[in-house]
Amino acid sequence: MQASGSSSEMRFSALFFFLGAITVLGILLILMIIYWKFDKAKELMKSMLRNKRLEASKNFLNGNLRTISYFDFNTLKKATKNFHSGYLLGRGGFGPVYRGKLADGRLVAVKKLSAEKSQQGESEFLSEVRMITSIQHKNLVRLLGCCSDGSQRVLVYEYMKNRSLDLMIYGKNDQFLNWNTRFQIILGIARGLQYLHEDSHVRIVHRDIKASNILLDEKFQPKIGDFGLARFFPEDQAYLSTTFAGTLGYTAPEYAIRGELSEKADIYSFGVLVLEIISCRKNTNLTLSSEMQYLPEYAWKLYERSRVIELVDPRMREDGIVENDVLQVINVAFLCLQPHANQRPPMSEIVAMLTCKVKTVGTPMRPAFMDRRNKRDENLSWDSISEPFPSLTRSDSSSLPPQPPPN
């Protein structure tokens, strides 16, 4: 009897543990199902919000503008192989630029904006994109689309086969550009700036005109890119007082010293860039002899000695040039480098002078130069200038008093 009772208790205990285990497993299964459904609902909600934001962004961009696309971030990750370093084209002031290939085979330049430097909210970012999209000219890089996904801000531009001008003129590749090609590049940049300053429905100062921000298509037609520092300018103001931003070596003195920003700052930068294109060297090179280190200063010394033709890239001189044509362009560059903003001609006059529609009037004054006597590092600044720059009160003058050029 005791053995039978003990056996029954064991069976009862086993059944109890079995039922208990099933109950616990059932509760765990129910909890897992609830969690799965909750997580699924959460993901669905996120997806709905993402799609809603995507649709809202598309609608915001479209309006009366149907010229650009709104890209999904995953699409751009796939196009750039997850922003692989092997696809890196360069780094702009606001983030790296990658080559990308879309599903339809198109090559694009994908600029991933740095989260630290681009602190705009989504609506501000999209508003700026919409404004940039409304500015279209054959000598400005075309914005194809954008992406705003959480903290990610991405711009998608047309891809330029010959990349940036600095690769061509700073000896970073072996491709030689003859005078006709260089003149085409100079004229194209001038026309792009004329559009920004004078012909667009909004007045725009680029603020960072330099060789690395000039892109070249397959025919070496130039396009101005990287509008990260660009400022929309009130029509009724001669200049804006603002904090300096840009690249030293290309900077106009009134902007670097007093923070006075106007279109004339771009014109000064253009003058420096023209000298770089003609000489095929950087505007500052501390490895050269003292008088050659700063390009505009060296060019002016040659001009005073009536030897400015020596500035021209020797390869271009060997290839054959019409000296008068090159000297005309150098003279235009000096006019762009005048020490006071109101002495620099507007871009429309510069384009006219380059295309010989008007004669270059006047002899340029000595440009402003940095005093580098105690500066022997790369951190050059406009802390000390070879002459003072008081604000001039007389009205803007588009040309200088006519004087005979030196022989």
TrEMBL record:
It comes from the Eukaryota. This is Receptor-like kinase. The lineage of its organism: Eukaryota, Viridiplantae, Streptophyta, Embryophyta, Tracheophyta.
